[in-house]
């Protein structure tokens, strides 16, 4: 009858591997576990029916950490392609290592828990640090504090840090200064130092009497002097009398 119609026909140009683009996504597994390769392809449901996924080599899950594995995607037409997939072995708490540092603060001032973690920006986004028991900052001293680190995957760990509290309390500032307790001394305990050159035992000696012989000698000497003066005076008088007679 000469009528016609148009039909849209799909045309496959190239192989499945050339046509399709698998999208990789992170695979999570516990330490020692076996990761599922199919979870490493985010758009597996968009690939041709019958497509299979398998690890090219087993992933090392003996130790925690971020690793990589190679997934082989096999299509129904027999073509294949390899996709590199990130693998997370263990929990965030097992993989990450927060670096704890001591913090110095003043009396009455409580620092934030995050200040004790120096590499907080290197931990997974969404990591939260809180007190695992708020410390007492009412007096000076070194205090051990406990921190709770909670990761985005729900895992957590408790860390210990040192808080150094400095400053003085009002009681310390207003406390009166106490004088040292000096015991009273007596005359017997402290004796004045002698200011004379007398021997130490001079005060205990009785007054000494002058020697008799010394006094007699002094008297005899005095009498001798008087006799000599009298003799000289007599001679002078005699000479004067003789001159007068002449």
Describe this structure in words.
The protein is of the alpha/beta class. Among the domains are: 16-90, Immunoglobulin-like (Sandwich); 95-172, Immunoglobulin-like (Sandwich). Helices cover 19% and strands 23% of the residues. It has helices at residues 16-19, 92-95, 170-174, 212-245, and strands at 27-29, 52-55, 65-74, 80-89, 103-106, 128-131, 141-150, 156-166. The strands form two sheets. Strands 1-4-3-2 form a four-stranded mixed β-sheet, with no helix packed on it. A hairpin with a 5-residue loop joins β3 (65-74) and β4 (80-89). The longest helix is centred in the C-terminal third of the chain and has 34 residues, at 212-245. It is rod-shaped. The chain starts with 15 loop residues before the first helix and ends with a helix. The model is unreliable at 184-188 and 193-205 (pLDDT under 50).
Structural class: alpha/beta
Mean pLDDT: 83
CATH superfamily of the domain at 95-172: Immunoglobulins
The major pleated sheet works out as: 4 strands, mixed
Large-scale geometry: rod-shaped
**What is the tally of helical segments?**
4
**Rg from Cα:** 59 Å
Strand content range: 15-25%
CATH architecture classification of the domain at 95-172:
Sandwich
> Ends: how far apart?
223 Å
Order of helices and strands: HEEEEHEEEEHH
Low-confidence stretches: 184-188, 193-205
Strand order of the largest sheet: 1-4-3-2
Estimated helix fraction: 10-25%
In total, the number of strands is 8
| Assembly state of the chains shown | single chain
Region (Disordered): 175-217
Biased composition (Polar residues): 175-199
Protein name: LPXTG cell wall anchor domain-containing protein
Domain Gram-positive cocci surface proteins LPxTG: 209-246
């Amino acid at each position: 009858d000469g009528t016609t119609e148009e039909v849209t026909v799909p045309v496959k140009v190239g192989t499945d591997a050339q046509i399709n683009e698998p999208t990789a996504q992170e695979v999570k597994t516990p330490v020692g576990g076996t990761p599922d390769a199919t979870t490493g392809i985010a758009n597996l449901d968009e690939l041709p029916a019958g497509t299979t996924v398998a690890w090219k080599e087993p992933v090392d899950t003996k130790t925690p950490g971020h690793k990589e594995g190679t997934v082989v995607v096999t299509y129904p037409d027999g073509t294949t392609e390899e996709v590199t997939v990130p693998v997370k072995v263990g929990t965030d708490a097992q993989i990450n290592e927060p670096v704890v540092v001591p913090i110095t603060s003043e009396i009455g001032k409580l620092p934030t828990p995050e200040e004790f973690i120096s590499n907080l920006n290197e931990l997974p986004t969404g990591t939260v640090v809180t007190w695992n028991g708020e410390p007492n900052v009412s007096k000076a001293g070194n205090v051990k504090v406990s921190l709770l680190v909670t990761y985005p995957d729900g895992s957590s760990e408790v860390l210990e840090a040192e808080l150094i509290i400095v400053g003085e309390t009002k009681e310390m500032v207003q406390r009166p200064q106490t004088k040292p307790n000096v015991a009273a001394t007596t005359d017997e305990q402290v004796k004045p130092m002698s200011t004379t050159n007398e021997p130490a035992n001079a005060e205990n000696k009785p007054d000494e009497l002058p020697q008799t012989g010394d006094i007699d000698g002094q008297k005899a000497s005095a009498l001798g002097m008087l006799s000599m003066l009298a003799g000289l005076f007599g001679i002078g008088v005699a000479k004067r009398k003789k001159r007068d007679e002449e």
